[in-house]
Amino acid sequence: MFAALGRTAARRRWTVVVGAVLFVALSGFWGAGAFGSFGGGAGFDDPYSESAQANEILAGPLGRSATDVVVMFTSPDRTVDDPAFEAAVTEAAARIPESSYTRLDTYWSTGSPDLVSADRQSTYIGLQLASPEETDNVVIYQETIEDRLDVEGYEVLYGGLVPVNEQVNALTGQDLVRAEMVSIPILLILLVIIFRSLVAASIPLIVGTVVAVGSLAVLRVVGFFYPVSTFSINVVTLLGLGLAIDYGLLVVNRFREELAAGRPVDEAVERTMGSAGRTVTFSGIAIALTLIGLLIFPSRFLVSMAVAIVSVVLFAVVAVLLLLPALLRFAGHRINSLRLPLPRFGRRDAETVPVQEGGWYRTAKVIMRRPVAVTVGLTILLLGAGAPLLGAQWGRPSDWVLPADVDARVVDDMLDNDFVRDPTEIVTAVVQLPGAADSPQSTAALEEFAARLDQVPGVDGAAITATEGDLARLTLGYAMDPQSDEAAEMVRGLRAAAPPEGATVRFTNYPVSLADMLSMLGDRLPLLVLYISVISFVVLFMAFGSVLIPIQSLLLNVLSLSAAFGTIALIFQYGFLSDVLGFVPEGFMDANMPMLILVIIFGLAMDYQVFTLSRIRENWEATHDPVESVAVGIQQSGRIISSAAVLFVVVVGGFILSNITFMMMIGVGLVIAVVVDATIVRGLLVPATMRLLGDRAWWAPAPLARWWRRWGVPESHGGPPVPPLGSGPGAPGAQNPRHHRHDSEPVRASAE
């Protein structure tokens, strides 16, 4: 099937390439609108939790009591006692259409000293916007408030939950452009170094660019059917770019091998897609299946990430299968043209070194002499790297994800340090009573309940703020960090308080929804681990027919993740390298990102593992030598996996340049995990553990072995000859189709 698809795409190459150009042009124009069509940072909460149920009730007649927007006014030389200050703020407030809000508070309308800073030179307008839906309020804010309340002579800053979402949206687009401007030139340089040919280097980059631009269009289409978070734009676009370039590297490398083995161009394209094209499809499906595991979590953020990333991964596979064979057919033997006179390091190029003299081969042989010591030592090292995770404190995104100088972050710091109370720091209790909430009996019971809540440690005042039918709303203040242990203890105390007789009480707002979110993630994480383990086992068993290889792979992935998550905790919770990365550590980490990193890393690790083990298995079937087959397989796969890992790290390293803290967190986690997986795991732990397993590595119970021989899908490279001396990427003889290897020649290192 894949060979036929490659043959068809090559035959109709003009149609495919012209279609791709038109697609990129239309995608760039239409997909650019994706930045304004998604729902900001909404959707982190558990929609089935108590806090979500309370929010649904508050969206009805009872109504919310929240401050969605804080517009801060600061004068360098006046205080709020100056009539000019009052006139300036009052005039600014009058510009806001009354239809856009349900409550507008100023110091002069309320007389509350809570709205004035300690030095009396700052005050704010507090707004509760008209819609109960956060995404609708972002639109209201953009159309009626944002940048419309500026007053000459005053510093005006916009903070609160809704401006946080808007400011994150704006930075997301800027981050993506900056990351691609930095990564694409570096990718081109690295591809030229890997292939030593400008033509060969440009082909994976072209495909990657098509996927990156097209991903925005794919996301916008997905957004018509499911609400997608703006945060997904950077993740899926850069991930799609990285995967497309890695897949392009594999396919172009295989095509050059086929040409070097003497194949005509058309046959080389066909055989390339029949082997490497199959590998790409297998990899993409494996990654997509792993990412689907995010659907275990009900939060809209993680579900939208799963839907969006799976869509883009599958799109990347389709783009590679259709566009690459057309480009390869155009290139033909010119694939090695525009060679650059790059310096040679060492006695010979890596591609011309016989397998037994290769660095990966020699390292594997050394490792396999002491497999127990290497396995135990590296296991202790990687588990030790994960030790900082044991003290992890988890939070959820809010203004802390923004740079320290962005409006919402500055406003939040001012409210914490210069004001008596932060109006956004409240907990709302929704009480459903057995009778009318405004009856004397219910009123007395509610007042007693409010008094009990006021005694909970951390609560700073509790009052009845609304009644409607059999419902009542109580508003509670607090002063601690909503993501602290003290806030979590306060939530437990509130829920432990005895409600009025016959009443049902539901709490909501930040510290409560955080507790519900962490509970949801903690409860469902074991299900995700079980799902990923089953998918990994099934995929690897289908590929190799072994029951021990999947277990080995799962354990090795745990070690990679240990190092990645330990580094994340060290940097983002404890502040190591925070000055270098340019963020202010808050003493906690976002709890959603590890779930995302977990599924991406498992998918990528399965890809690398399948490719490495397929080379080992190929040599084992030929020799049945468990030591030599591992060393040769590691050598044959080491260079291409290292190259793919370096290219992927350059792409996802763009997250580290982000202005949004948890995007940096994704970048650091993926970079560390990929580097560890491609070096320590593939180069050292795989040969050590394979030596411990020996021939048993490929064992399965007899019934499963019989089933696999009939239904399994072993990795196939289409039976091409081992490339001749110097036929790898960038090798001097790669263009000579008549250069064949004689049977008497030693086996050479392959770049694939």
Q: Can you walk through the features of this model?
A:
- With 752 residues, the protein is an alpha+beta fold.
- The chain has 23 helices and 10 strands.
- Residues 345-350 and 717-752 have low confidence and may be disordered.
- It is elongated.
- 54% of the residues are buried.
Key features?
752 residues; Multidrug efflux transporter AcrB transmembrane fold; Alpha-Beta Plaits; 4-stranded antiparallel β-sheet; Mycobact_MmpL; transmembrane helix; transmembrane
TL;DR?
With 752 residues, the protein is an alpha+beta fold. It is built from 23 helices and 10 strands.
The CATH architecture of the largest domain comes to: Up-down Bundle
* Unreliable stretches: 345-350, 717-752
> What structural class do helix, strand and pairing data support?
alpha+beta
Strand tally? 10
CATH first level of the largest domain: Mainly Alpha
Fourth CATH level, the homologous superfamily of the largest domain: Multidrug efflux transporter AcrB transmembrane domain
Percent of residues in helices: 55-70%
Give a short account of the largest sheet.
4 strands, antiparallel
Tell me the number of structural domains: 4
Order of strands, main sheet, comes to 2-3-1-4
Task: Spell out the blueprint of helices and strands.
Layout: H1 2-11, H2 13-31, H3 50-58, E1 69-74, H4 83-94, E2 101-105, H5 107-110, E3 122-129, H6 134-144, E4 155-159, H7 161-195, H8 198-225, H9 231-260, H10 265-291, H11 300-331, H12 359-369, H13 371-385, E5 394-395, H14 407-418, E6 426-432, H15 440-454, E7 459-468, E8 471-478, H16 485-496, E9 504-508, H17 510-544, H18 548-573, H19 578-581, E10 589-590, H20 593-623, H21 626-652, H22 661-693, H23 702-711
Parallel strand pairs: 5-10
Antiparallel strand pairs: 1-3, 1-4, 2-3, 6-8, 6-9, 7-8
Helix pairs in contact: 1-10, 1-11, 2-8, 2-11, 6-7, 7-8, 7-9, 7-21, 8-9, 8-11, 9-10, 9-11, 9-21, 10-11, 10-20, 12-21, 12-22, 13-18, 13-22, 17-18, 17-20, 18-20, 18-22, 20-21, 20-22, 21-22
